[in-house]
């Protein structure tokens, strides 16, 4: 289970790490005075407006990476039998059972779709006998 989550997540983390290392400038010592009191090229409290055409695609769309990495986690943990039944119970509490009558039946993928009949032939025999 952990491997199935790490497979899509690990390449994203490695890619972001490599991009950050490539964009990193030379390490310089920190100086509070130079950061806050030095007005060249801009004062420390200046807000710069940059058009989106000047920002690289990876940095512009960086906000979607957590969403993309959360999708496999939801698929593996949010679509289990217990989770689907919790969603079903919540939907019933909201009154959606009238719109979707199949919500009234508990979700159990291990249980077959037959209604008590063990084979297709016995189900056909039952309908003929009626």
UniProtKB/TrEMBL annotation:
The keyword Nucleotide-binding does not apply. Keywords: G-protein coupled receptor, Membrane, Pheromone response, Receptor, Transducer, Transmembrane, Transmembrane helix. It is found in: Membrane. Pfam families: STE3. GO terms for cellular component: plasma membrane. GO terms for biological process: pheromone-dependent signal transduction involved in conjugation with cellular fusion. One of its GO terms (molecular function) is mating-type factor pheromone receptor activity. It is a multi-pass membrane protein. The keyword Transmembrane applies. The chain crosses the membrane at residues 6-22. InterPro entries: GPCR_STE3 (IPR001499). Its main location: membrane. PANTHER family: PHEROMONE A FACTOR RECEPTOR. Belongs to the G-protein coupled receptor 4 family. This is Uncharacterized protein. It comes from Ustilaginoidea virens (Rice false smut fungus).
